[in-house]
């Protein structure tokens, strides 16, 4: 790992505040990054103190005044070069993601590829930031709307996707003419330091103003400060629903904008008309990928009673084949949880499930001994439950999968929708009517609804986000770029008269 850190410019001690090529000195708390893979210390990062925070925000504010005037295609070309640099660093950055966060190496590489993909998307978008034209009711007038940059975009990201979610926001914000201030999770600060160094080199080569991309490493209080800062018109926050409610309240109190991508409690409906072998792959990966620490992780399976027993048996057999261990081994399916706090939440959820009457088909537990070099490895668990169980209503960020039966399609949809969260959902069926009904207004109430694929693994071309307690925000593709800009309606009078709208007369 030493060679990987060296390639990415990470040393034993790192500053956690940066305006680009300038790493701001700070006397803040030292945050030590430990790997959940083996429990070993990776490196230290000095968090941003008050003075560093102010320097970063002030530098970003000044940079915006220049960056917003760069033509969008020129900004897009800088993002294109960032994508090229990410291609160069894909292997070491992917390995760092895997080692610092604990996800499998393939998922680590996949996360960096997702960064590349969103940059490619943003490059094309840089020539497509279009408004509308409208016919005026007044003769000799023309109306249209255009979109302008907002200013500073504050990005608060979570540990489970330590680089990709930042890039979703940053790539779009940059081509829109905004500047970014990133507060990564304090659990994965080194991934953020590596990304900042990569993009800073690209910016320096293109004479991008200092302060267009900024980094602030710190704990919860730093995110709270960003949420309350009137100089940051948009705060994009990814994390728990509890955190999102606090951010949304703080930003809303100052009439700012918030983009919230919060918890998920995602379900797959297994129809009696499903291809069960294909469904099995989607369900298992959805449930155990990233050790159940995705906001799109499959947490509930709603299975038709006619195929319940056969699919249950397939699932239990598949779980016996899972390989748990060091995620840097490409043959491993499941790595560790992020830390001991996550392990405690996992154990508590299992106990609550048992207390409510859940029957475990695949028992959970913490793994110790050879091959498990930290205390963060756990067994993916499967339990039979009832939809009304309290534990099923909440998101546990761990590999626990709940199974329940249904009789009718309407019952399945009601169970699927009957939780506070509304991020991702799927149905496995070869029945066209069921598929279309699931995607209709009377079907899934989630921001993402899939047919014959799982709940996780979204592509960047579509807008990503959910409803209800998931926050309502949309990131990544489609027209998600609009959240990073302000809309302006323009009316031009090219006549020699000044008629008023609605036929109002005002003669002098």
From TrEMBL:
Its EC number is 1.2.1.3. Keywords: NAD, Oxidoreductase. Coiled coil: none annotated. GO terms for molecular function: aldehyde dehydrogenase (NAD+) activity. Gene3D superfamilies: Aldehyde Dehydrogenase, Chain A, domain 1, Aldehyde Dehydrogenase, Chain A, domain 2. Signal peptide: none annotated. Residues 23-489 form the Aldehyde dehydrogenase domain. PROSITE patterns: ALDEHYDE_DEHYDR_GLU. InterPro entries: Ald_DH/histidinol_DH, Ald_DH_C, Ald_DH_CS_GLU, Ald_DH_N, Aldehyde_DH_dom, ALDH7A1-like. It holds the Pfam family Aldedh. The active site is at residue 261. Homotetramer. Belongs to the aldehyde dehydrogenase family. This is aldehyde dehydrogenase (NAD(+)). It comes from Flavisolibacter ginsenosidimutans.
């Amino acid at each position: 790992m030493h060679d990987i850190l060296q390639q990415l410019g990470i040393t034993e001690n790192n500053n956690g505040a940066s305006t680009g090529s300038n790493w701001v000195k700070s006397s803040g708390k030292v945050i030590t990054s430990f790997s959940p893979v083996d429990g070993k210390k990776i490196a230290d990062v000095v968090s941003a103190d008050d003075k560093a925070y102010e320097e970063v925000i002030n530098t970003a504010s000044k940079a915006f005044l220049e960056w917003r005037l760069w033509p969008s295609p020129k900004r897009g070309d800088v993002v294109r070069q960032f994508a090229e640099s990410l291609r160069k660093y894909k292997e070491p950055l992917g390995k760092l993601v895997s080692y610092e966060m604990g996800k499998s190496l393939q998922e680590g590489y996949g996360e960096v590829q997702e960064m590349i993909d969103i940059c490619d998307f943003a490059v094309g978008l840089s020539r497509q930031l279009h408004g509308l034209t409208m016919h005026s009711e007044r003769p000799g007038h023309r109306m249209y709307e255009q979109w302008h940059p907002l200013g500073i975009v504050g990005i608060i990201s979570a540990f489970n996707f330590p680089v990709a979610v930042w890039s979703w926001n940053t790539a779009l914000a940059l081509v829109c003419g905004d500047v970014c201030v990133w507060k990564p999770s304090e659990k994965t600060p080194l991934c953020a330091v590596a990304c900042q160094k990569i993009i800073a080199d690209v910016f320096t080569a293109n004479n991008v103003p200092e302060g267009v991309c900024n980094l602030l490493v710190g704990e919860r209080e730093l995110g709270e400060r960003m949420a309350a800062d009137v100089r940051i018109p948009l705060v994009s926050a990814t994390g728990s629903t509890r955190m999102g409610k606090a951010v949304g309240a703080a930003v809303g109190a100052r009439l700012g904008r918030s983009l919230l991508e919060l918890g998920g409690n995602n379900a797959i409906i297994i129809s009696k008309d499903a291809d069960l072998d294909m469904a099995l792959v989607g369900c298992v990966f959805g449930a155990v990928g990233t050790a159940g620490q995705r906001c799109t992780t499959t947490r509930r399976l709603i299975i038709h009673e006619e195929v319940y027993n056969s699919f249950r048996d397939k699932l239990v057999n598949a779980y016996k084949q899972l390989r748990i261990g060091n995620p840097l081994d490409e043959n491993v399916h499941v790595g560790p949880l992020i830390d001991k706090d996550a392990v405690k939440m996992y154990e508590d959820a299992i106990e609550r499930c048992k207390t409510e009457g859940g029957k475990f088909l695949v028992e959970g537990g913490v793994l110790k001994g050879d091959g498990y070099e930290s205390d963060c490895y756990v067994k993916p668990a499967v339990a039979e439950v009832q939809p009304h169980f309290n534990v099923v209503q909440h998101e546990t960020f761990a590999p626990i999968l709940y199974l329940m039966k249904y009789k009718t399609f309407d019952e399945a949809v009601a169970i699927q929708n009957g939780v506070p969260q509304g991020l991702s959902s799927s149905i496995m069926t070869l029945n066209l009517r069921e598929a279309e009904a699931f995607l209709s207004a009377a079907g899934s109430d989630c921001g993402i609804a899939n047919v014959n694929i799982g709940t996780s693994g979204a592509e960047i071309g579509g807008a990503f986000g959910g409803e209800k307690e998931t926050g309502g925000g949309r990131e990544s593709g489609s027209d998600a770029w609009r959240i990073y800009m302000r809309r302006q309606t323009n009316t031009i009078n090219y006549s020699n008269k000044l008629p008023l709208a609605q036929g109002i007369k005002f003669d002098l």
